[in-house]
Amino acid sequence: MSPTAADLTGAARIREAAMARFPRDGFEGTTVRAIAEDAGVSPALVVHHFGSKKELRAACDAYVIDRIRSVKEDAITSGKLDDPATISGGFQMAPPLIRYLGWALASGSAAAAGLFDEMVDESMRLSELAEEQGAMEPSTDLRARCALQIAMQMGALAMQDHLERALGVDLLSPEGVMRMSRATLELFSGGMFPPGQAEAMRKALDTAIENTRKEGSDG
Questions:
Q1: How many CB atoms lie within 10 A of CB 114?
Q2: How far is Cα 214 from Cα 216, in angstroms, rounded to an integer?
Q3: Which of 29, 71, 156, 192 qualifies as a cystine partner to 25, CB 3.0-4.6 A?
Q4: In angstroms, rounded to a whole number, what is the distance separating the alpha carbons of residues 71 and 89?
Q5: 93, 118, 70: which is closest to 181 by C-alpha?
Q6: All domains of the chain, ordered by start, with CATH?
Q7: pLDDT tens digits for range 23-43
């Protein structure tokens, strides 16, 4: 959970306020003055700490990546991916970060493109670490798997209104996050298909890819 305002430094309060304001009002619609008011500081202090609104957004992006990296890396290296306390902590952290991430990646800006690319790179690094720890199966195309996973997770945020209507729950509430996480685990763990079906489909895909390569080289 985000600390209370009293527990945060001025710079941290500004960052928290910006992370809440940007998704609500958009980057262009958010003013430094509004962020300052939300944070309980002067506009001059925002400029002092971050220089400009653009640099403040970059700081928010970096903070989100760092928090996600820290939580996932701690869970992997400690072997506690399936620990209830670890999972609960992730759920508590998720709503404000996910809300900001969803907005940032849907904004279509150069900053969003850079954020997505960094998330893919970081996901690959953490996946390799998880493979070393025996917490994740190796992939034949790790970059594609990581990129698709992130796109699917962020795509769910773009469809937030529809998902909430279909499920009857706030997607970013603890109940919503847990429900979506369970469904995601089922998808990624092969829980949709009976034993042997996934392997048969994988072999068919490998054959189709090889045939496509041969056709391309023959042409």
A1: 13
A2: 5
A3: 29
A4: 9
A5: 93
A6: 1-51 (1.10.10.60), 61-188 (1.10.357.10)
A7: 999 999 999 999 999 999 999
